[in-house]
Amino acid sequence: MLKVDVGRAVAELVVALRLVVEKALAWWSKVADDIYSHLSYVKEGTIDDDETVYLYVKDDEQYGLREPADSGYLVNDGPGTLTVRSSDDGERYTAPMTVYSGEMLVWELDDDEYVDRVYFTCDTDGTKYRARFARRRKE
Fold first, then answer.
1. Out of 19, 21, 123, 130, which could bridge 75 as a Cys pair, Cβ 3.0 to 4.6 Å?
2. CB-facing half-sphere around the CA of 16: CA atoms within 13 A
3. CB contact burial 9-25 (16+ within 10 A = b; e otherwise)
4. Of 84, 87, 68, nearest to 76 (Cα)?
5. The dihedral of CA 63, 42, 57, 70: what is its sign?
6. Would you call 99 exposed, middle or buried from its count of C-beta atoms within 10 A (0-12, 13-18, 19+)?
7. Count of alpha carbons within 13 Å of 111, Cβ hemisphere only?
């Protein structure tokens, strides 16, 4: 007759399943990083004179990059003027930057500046805007 220690068998099965899950999660994390590193954060819209727009480049639930961007741009399609501030960590912000109608504010990879989020307001005219941010591919 074969004797089986059920408690020990269950414990060994739990350990084995935990290892499988850990390996699966590690694999998915690598795949997800590869997928997301090739995408960009894109947003466009209209801002009224009494509104503040926040672009959560890193943490947007639907389109966030999961890391701060290292390049991007914000275009003011007019007619108003934008006052823009950006942050590399979500806590400290740059001095205000003015972007007039028809102008583009650019963050370049060579600037060694990262963008976690951007927020901006508009003068009394309101305006339309377009933004795109990306990060370089991981090696």
1. 130
2. 6
3. eeeeeeeeeeeeeeeee
4. 84
5. positive
6. buried
7. 13
